[in-house]
Task: structure prediction
Amino acid sequence: QVQLMESGGGLVQPGESITLRCAASGDIHGLRSLGWYRQAPTNQRELVASIDGEGIPNYAKSVEDRFVVSISREWQKSMVYLRMRDLKAEDTATYYCRYVGLATYGEFEVWGRGTQVTVSS
Result:
């Protein structure tokens, strides 16, 4: 099993920065990617940024010049970070961590519970 623990959300003002963290633990040896998705109340869940086990990132167009995703890997724990700067009101959403792994039966995914980011003055 894989467990995800997100942290780092909160209330920030426009233009400020914040860093989200997601700790993946458990049977993570088949890690394919870790990523961040977000969902605002009236929107569908969308990709923000992801990074594969080789450290290659992938960003949504709307954030690629403001957000940075990074990963650190240990034997039994991996961390994915999302450094967000110059935050805007439209970045307000619940941010979810997503793990994609490869098992003997195929690829699988695990989602975190989410952490709220609110950008407001």
